[in-house]
Sequence to fold (238 residues):
Amino acid sequence: MPVLVITGTGTEIGKTVTTAAVATAALAAGRSVAVLKAAQTGVGPDERGDADEVARLAGPVTAAEIARFPEPLAPGTAARRAGMAPVHPQEVAERAAKLAAEHDLVLVEGAGGLLVRFDAAGGTLADVARLLDAPVLVVVQAGLGTLNVTELTARELRRQGLGFAGLVIGSWPDTPDLATRCNVAELPEVAGAPLLGALPSGAGALPPAEFRTAAPGWLAPRLDGTWDAEAFRVRQTP
Fold:
C-alpha cells in the first residue's frame, strides 16, 4: 500500500503515536516513509506538530503538513475562526500523491475522526481516502464505550466504499479491566476488520531509541511488525 490513511474514533486516543509506530516498523523493514498531517490544529507557528512528533519518535521520515491553525478545534472551524484558508481534500490528496512518487509508503494522518470537516463544503478525511483510493487504518480506544464508535466508523467506511485496513488499539493499559479485556475479541467482530496492533500506554513517552526498538512488536505483520493478534486475544480474553 503506497498510501495509508490513518484516522481515529475520536481525539487523544493515540493516533499520532500509532502513526509513528507504523512509520518505525516500515523503516525497519527497509521502506522509505513520508508522513503527511492534513491539518494541524492547536499549535503555534514555531511549535512542533504531529508530523514532527512522528519524525522524533520514528527517525528518518519525511514530515510534512498542509496547514496549521492556532486553536485546538476541528480544522474547518479552526480555519474559519483564524480567518485562514481551509484545507481541502483535493489538496491533501495531491500532496500525498507527490510524496508517494518519492517514497515507498505515505502515511496521511487526519484530525480527530473520519468525518471531521476540513472546509465549509464538508470535505473530510474520507474524501481524501477516496481520491487516493487508499485504505484506512482506524485507531481505537481500548475500554468501555469503544465498541459503538468503532462500529459506527466501520459502517461509514463501508457505506462510502472505502478500503478498511484494520484497527489498532492506540493505548493498551498496564492493568486492563474486564471491559477492556473483552473488547480484544469484540472490536474486530463489530468492525468486521482485523485487529492489527495494540500500543502500550505511555508508548509516546519512551525515548526514541527505545520506541524504535519496541514498535514493530506492537504491530501485526501486515504493518511490517511481529505482533501476534491471536496470542494477544487468548492472553487477554477472560
Remarks:
- The chain has a mean pLDDT of 96.
- The longest helix spans residues 15-28.
